[in-house]
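ASSEMBLY PREDICTION REQUEST
Request ID: AP-0331
Submitted by: J.K., bench scientist
Number of chains: two
Total residues: 231
Priority: normal
Notes: Please return the full assembly, not individual chains.
Input sequences:
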Amino acid sequence: GNSVTQMEGPVTLSEEAFLTINCTYTATGYPSLFWYVQYPGEGLQLLLKATKADDKGSNKGFEATYRKETTSFHLEKGSVQVSDSAVYFCALSDLAENYGQNFVFGPGTRLSVLP
Amino acid sequence: DTAVSQTPKYLVTQMGNDKSIKCEQNLGHDTMYWYKQDSKKFLKIMFSYNNKELIINETVPNRFSPKSPDKAHLNLHINSLELGDSAVYFCASSRGGTAGHYNEQFFGPGTRLTVL
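STATUS: Completed
Returned structure:
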């Protein structure tokens, strides 16, 4: 079956540091890839997405590139802020067996940014 | 306007009780989902409904029963609550996708269930 692996946290960085959160996936089909962010006490919000190989998703200074050859979708940001402290989830979606979409989430990576 | 809403936000109850969580989406999506998030933030899919029909039913105790009165609503009813049911429950919705282009999910704010 499909699966998503991402680096275990917590990740602690100083403000303005460079961020990378690794994500790799296993899928039988050709999935779409997503990064979601969950701030404390809230639901998940879509951060960015990519639907085909070499697509780059970007939002709020975050970027991730769909790498089919390495089955990866690593999240990066050049300069993190305290307000980026949250849990980040890598996810994929492809066709479910009996119609609809099948979403698979990684375990989440908690990021803490210190001033 | 809230895209995906859930009620209640907090639910504290005794073991053995029956409770329901309601979910509504105003996005016109045809697929809705329920997830359980444990204390370590791990997300587990419980159910998925497409056009009011069940399409995914992961290994969930039959004490949990989803009910979809229409495409905009997917409620979760839990019978005989147990301590291990304590978690945050998220509702989500999405548009249908096509091969090679799948659409993102929109999540509700969550319902924190505490079973005493």
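REVIEWER COMMENTS: The radius of gyration of chain B is 14 Å.
SIGN-OFF: pending second reviewer
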